[in-house]
Amino acid sequence: MADALDTVDQAQITALVPREPTGAALSQAAAAADRAASSALFAEYRQQLAAHTRSAHDQDLARCALYLADVGVSVGALAVEPVAWAGFTWGLVEGFKRWMLREGFALATLNRTLATIKSYTRLAAQSGALAAEQATMIAAVKGYGRKQGRNLDAERATTRRSAKKAQAVTISLAHARALKEQPSDTPQGRRDALLICLLLDHGLRIGELAALTVGAVDLAAGTLTFYREKVDLTQTHLLSAATLRAALAYFQHDRTGAAAGDALLLGSRRGGGLRGTLGVRSIQARVQMLGAGIGLKQLSPHDLRHYWASAAISGGTDLLALQEAGGWASLAMPRRYVERAKIANERVKLQV
To answer: Which residue ranges does the record assign to the Tyr recombinase domain (predicted)?
Structure first.
């Protein structure tokens, strides 16, 4: 993306101001500067977002435009034009929220989309395109909490269309061991073993896994160095014993001579060989297939990250260590795993 500041033509603004500006000329120049700054506001904001966040915003805004078209309203480019938000009201956003509910979107998607709308309406108000009063009222529109979500999802279980699950698939220790035990005598089996170990033993997000290169793995040191785009952080993990074994087999048989910048995980080909790269969708499909093979329906890479965090807490990992290793920006998510791991009656003493 071009630098957002490039959208502000400073030469044009300067040309509007005479060497000895009159009041009228200065007003014109100020108005031109305001318009230019307003146009640059969205571009600057989006430039600072991570690529995956920008993509998520685009999906959310496209969903909003679809809703507006559904109710007979046409708007400009919501991602780049402040004026496109000029007619937004809190009632319109409430209607959008209820539309998403009726259309069967997952509540996580609904809540994220609301947060996106609030961010852009706040920017629109800052640019002067939207009344500050409306922006404040839109900011007060609430999404749905977990308890509300469970009740709502129970009522609309047959109408939800999102691929996102309301709850993570429960994975036992036996399941985890079975997933790691992939065939070691085939290229796909060796690749799958490494893929599963990186998810189960290191808690990688699917995008982080897909982006791994050959150079990320140091077999001599037994480490994995990778980038967590979501929190803009490069981490080094000490490979678990299972991951190191899987990596050694995979490199020995399937990645000999590969350059450091080459993709780590290769895609599947007919006949059991490997070629190309294993992208996000392919990883999702592969994990789902491997899960189905041991009786876990709709298993996803994020379910394996859930397992990793829960297993870490059960093993005695403290909150700060889990937050750092998992690449979370706050303690909120690690705390949820702690709460799930608690035994509710462990401090209850009964007279026997």
So the answer is: 164-352
Instruction: Domain count for the chain, please give it.
Output: 2
Q: Please check whether residues 193 and 282 belong to one and the same domain.
A: yes
What CATH number has the domain bearing residue 268? 1.10.443.10
Choose among 29, 27, 152, 173: nearest CA to 98. Answer: 152
Beta-carbon contacts of residue 110 (< 8 Å; ≥ 6 apart)? 97, 100, 101, 143, 144
- pTM (two decimals): 0.60
Q: How far apart are CA 18 and CA 20, in angstroms?
A: 5
Last residue within a domain, chosen from 91, 123, 155:
155
pLDDT in tens, 98-157: 888 887 788 888 899 999 999 999 999 988 889 999 999 999 999 888 777 667 766 665
Residue type, 348: V
Q: Range of 136's domain? A: 49-155
